[in-house]
Design brief:
about 450 residues, alpha/beta, Dihydrodipicolinate Reductase, domain 2, Alpha-Beta Plaits, eleven-stranded mixed beta sheet, six-stranded parallel beta sheet
């Protein structure tokens, strides 16, 4: 059988990895797919670099339109990133009857609904395993492996840069800024790291996972997003003393009132497997009603781990290429006309537990005042620790862990606590998730 022809948009890190993996494992891949998979045209602005990677046999162009309109190309792999040019090219490829494989989470989180609808009309596939958690096959697990389950919640470390920074802050006792510089030097963080440390990259990925888990449209604009730039070494240390680790988590949860969709630093009990995921690794816990919690762990970025997912998608598309579109796995796991309009909960309606750190004057009655404010708002305390004052100081840190409560109550409590004359400065609030199998 003739090999299937692939056009590649962009031969940067992941593009280069994809080319290398396809070439190295071509025999295995052909045995699995039933036919060869060949990249026969590459578009990249740097023609010299592309030629060095791809050799003489591959057609190379600087115009991406040559790829998406090429009559011999069946699958277009989009690895240019961003969401303006990438969106135009993806829609153009679909319009020209090509299947698309993409690693572009921002594109899907913002425009997925429109792109899938276009693909549906043309009877082509859009595959995007590489868009979430690099080499971990989480999309396939959610969409196919767990298809018998009613998925209850997902919680994931899905940004390696942030996880590396938090791991280093904890292991070496360094401040955020020092570790960020180190991450940039090692190439783990971009020169402008805002997407990673601000939680936006994780928000793109949790948007995609929520859509597949619950059969809802992509709703990136509804994700509550908070990054890690404000975290201090003392909070990491205090959390540790109380038996918790702080991780930047993407969380989505089905509740009777709607779906939670949020990204923020989170305390998790240190005995949980996911709490021990260090460095640039990713990990995702998915809780299904039948299977209970399942954990997916691996490299969330990098040339070959991400290429592993791109090539898996190429094999999938190659196998399903001739199937009647109605018999293919739907893009978002649920039949497109059966997506649900369950609302996304606003953050103030979310129910979780909290870590609060406040600095107060060391004098009688302060704890009683704070406890009263919390009790009045129906917030019960799980643990409270008062630190010893430093020599000659009359101020102390108080750490409070609450039981489950609604965010809007905590917001009100914080305002009232900050108003107390004995409280100095702002209250630090970090959310806390037990991630236990019955939660």
């Amino acid at each position: 059988m003739k090999p299937i022809n692939v056009g590649l948009l962009g031969i940067g890190t992941v593009g280069g990895g994809t080319f290398a993996v396809l070439k190295r494992n071509q025999e295995e891949i052909a045995r699995r797919a039933g036919r060869g998979i060949v990249i026969n045209i590459i578009a990249d602005r740097d023609i010299e670099k592309a030629r060095k990677i791809a050799g003489e046999d591959t057609l190379i162009t600087s115009d991406a339109n040559d790829v998406v309109t090429h009559p011999d190309v069946s699958i277009v792999v989009e690895l240019i990133g961003g969401y303006t040019t990438a969106k135009e090219l993806t829609l153009k490829a679909i319009e020209n009857g090509k299947h698309v494989v993409t690693a572009n989470k921002a594109l899907l989180a913002l425009h997925g609904t429109e792109i899938f609808a276009a693909a549906q009309r043309k009877g082509v596939m859009v595959a995007f395993e590489a868009a979430v958690a690099g080499g971990i096959p989480i999309i396939k697990a959610l969409r196919e492996g767990l298809t018998a389950n009613r998925i209850e919640w997902i919680a994931g470390i899905i940004n390696g840069t942030s996880n590396f920074i938090l791991s280093e802050m904890r292991n070496k006792g360094l401040g955020f800024d020092a570790v960020l510089k180190q991450a940039q030097k090692l190439g783990y963080a971009e020169a402008d790291p805002a997407f990673d440390i601000g939680g936006i990259d994780a928000a793109h990925k949790i948007t995609i996972m929520a859509a597949i888990a619950f059969g809802i449209p992509m709703q990136f604009d509804k994700v509550y997003t908070e990054g890690i730039a404000k975290l201090t070494g003392e909070d990491i240390r205090y959390a540790e003393e109380l038996g918790y680790r702080i991780k930047l988590l993407g969380i989505t949860k089905r509740t009777p009132k709607g779906i939670e969709l949020r990204v923020h630093p989170t305390l998790i009990p240190s005995q949980r497997l996911i709490a021990n995921v260090e460095g640039v690794m990713n990990a995702i816990v998915v809780k299904g009603d039948a299977v209970g919690p399942t954990l997916y762990y691996g490299a969330g970025a990098g040339a070959e781990p991400t290429a592993s997912s791109v090539v898996a998608d190429l094999v999938d598309v190659t196998r399903m290429h001739t199937a009647d579109p109605k018999n293919r796995v739907p893009h978002l796991a649920f039949q497109p006309d059966l997506l649900s309009d369950i609302p996304i909960l606003p953050m103030e309606e979310v129910e979780t537990s909290y870590y609060l750190r406040l600095r107060v004057m060391d004098k009688p009655g302060v704890l009683a005042d704070i406890s009263r404010i919390l009790a009045d708002l129906d917030i019960s305390i799980g643990a409270m620790v008062q630190k010893e004052p430093n020599q000659g100081e009359d101020q102390v840190d108080i750490i409070i862990l609450t039981h489950l409560t609604v965010e809007k109550n905590i917001n009100s409590a914080i305002i009232k606590i900050e108003d107390l004359p004995a409280v100095i400065g702002r209250v630090t609030r970090i959310r806390l998730e037990e991630l236990s199998s019955n939660h």
